[in-house]
Amino acid sequence: GIQVEQSPPDLILQEGANSTLRCNFSDSVNNLQWFHQNPWGQLINLFYIPSGTKQNGRLSATTVATERYSLLYISSSQTTDSGVYFCAAYNAGGTSYGKLTFGQGTILTVHP
Amino acid sequence: KAGVTQTPRYLIKTRGQQVTLSCSPISGHRSVSWYQQTPGQGLQFLFEYFSETQRNKGNFPGRFSGRQFSNSRSEMNVSTLELGDSALYLCASSRTSGSSGGNIQYFGAGTRLSVL
Known about the structure:
The complex is a heterodimer of chains A (112) and B (116).
Chain A: E1 4-7, E2 10-14, E3 19-25, E4 31-37, E5 43-48, E6 52-56, E7 59-64, E8 69-74, E9 83-90, E10 101-102, E11 106-111
Chain B: E1 5-7, E2 10-13, E3 19-24, E4 31-38, E5 42-50, E6 53-57, E7 64-68, E8 74-78, E9 87-94, E10 106-107, E11 111-115
Parallel strand pairs in B: 2-11
Antiparallel strand pairs in B: 1-3, 3-8, 4-5, 4-9, 5-6, 7-8, 9-10, 9-11
């Protein structure tokens, strides 16, 4: 099955800094999602981005499907951005119905 | 529109018992997927149901089972609980799970299971 790798595993920033999180995947995908896991464990949808570029406020994401990677950009970071960011993907062909494969996550800590 | 609802939010069980978790998907969503999250293994796929049929299953023992009802609500059951089953169990729903659009997964708040 598809493999998903995220980097860096940990990221520590001062408030106001910018950051880039990377997600590499091993096969073509028709679903790629970025999530932020809140302290209570819920996965909050950030982007659905199997290809192209999207922006939502201070966050933006780009997926280059031909090169099998996706980037999540956080600008002017705030303490509330702290938490774990996950990338997850699947290719719905064959027997992959409904199975998102998750990366190990990036733990982001933003200090005031 | 209500989100994905999981009940209960917290459970404490002892080894050998069984447990049933419930998931109500977003209205109109027919696909429900279940995941287990542990510190050691991360987020792992358990199974997916669509129109009351299990279409995909992860690499978990037969003690883990599930079902989906005609209203798309889903339950998962774990029998003969082991200490290692302590985890956050997450449910996600989507309109479809195929290669066309509509396969975006939306997650519930999870059920945190502790096995003593």
